[in-house]
Design goal:
With 149 residues, the chain is of the alpha/beta class. It is built from five helices and six strands, in the order βαββαβαββαα. Helix content is 44%, strand content 16%. A six-stranded mixed beta sheet has the order 3-2-1-4-5-6, sandwiched between helices. Helix 3 links the parallel strand 4 and strand 5. Helix 1 packs parallel to helix 5 and helix 3 packs antiparallel against helix 4. It is globular.
Length: 149
């Protein structure tokens, strides 16, 4: 099992949680981004810089993912592809995506994109909170505990 992180937009606090979890559970973790990311020295953690361009990091993750791997991302189209390939996906705010709920999330994302393109302002997501951080950590721990069985 491998954890892949869509690193360009992942909050620093989530990365810190992931770094600790990777070392604690001896799980391979790769952050994929268009820019150079700093990661702590660890045999389990690495950062991979991909070329600049639209969805280049996402395409790399989809190409590399294996069934049972976990992807950390809020990018619903990426998450949908991950689920289709047998992977699991967790949003940095703690939402765990499944084959049952990803289509609903994708439909909502597409609806909101359509509303924004027609001129409606949405205001964006709320600031990342302590509750988001806790929800993410709890879901990650549940997933890792289940993967170790």
């Amino acid at each position: 099992m491998h954890i892949w992180v869509d690193g360009d937009a992942c909050p620093a606090v989530v990365k810190d949680i992931l770094f600790r979890a990777a070392d604690r559970t001896q799980t391979s973790l790769t952050l994929v981004a268009n820019k150079l990311l700093r990661v702590p020295p660890s045999p389990y953690i690495r950062a991979l810089q991909v070329a600049h361009g639209f969805d280049v990091a996402d395409a790399h993750i989809v190409e590399q993912i294996q069934p049972g791997d976990l992807v950390i991302s809020a990018d619903i189209p990426l998450v949908s592809q991950v689920i289709d390939k047998g992977g699991a996906a967790l949003n940095p705010r703690g939402t765990f995506y499944t084959a049952e709920n990803v289509k609903e999330h994708l439909a909502m994302r597409n609806f909101m994109e359509e509303m924004r393109s027609s001129g409606m302002e949405g205001g964006g997501p709320p600031p990342f909170s302590q509750a988001d951080r806790q929800a993410f950590a709890n879901q990650l721990d549940r997933f890792l505990a289940g993967a170790r069985r």
